[in-house]
Amino acid sequence: MAMPMFRRIPRKLEEVLGDQGANEFLDFINDSFAANKENIVELVSDRFEKRLSEEINVFRSEIKAEMADLRAEVKEDIANLRAELKEDLAEIRIEMKTEFAEIYKLIAAQTRWMLGAIVALTGIFSIIVKM
Fold it and tell me: Which of 30, 50, 64, 81: disulfide with 4, CB 3.0–4.6 Å?
């Protein structure tokens, strides 16, 4: 048990009550204050728990709202990235088509030169053979 709150009572009250009465009165007061202290601690504890619960609920709702905002921002960023990626891919496709067209032109020109060289060499070879 906790230390008694009151150890002594005023002398005049002790004289009126006597030693036995003074001790019983001290015990009564200490028991009353101890019971009251327990009630107060319980009440304060209950209030604290209730307040803590309220604050936790407020905190949770704020966190949920912030998470929803963050989720919306992330979705928006992802949508923007997808749009940018589509644009970049479209640009790359256009560049690739342009490059392929240039390569096709170069291959066609090279093929013409090769055919021209083969025709010319065939003509030159037939002239050399006839000589």
Answer: 30
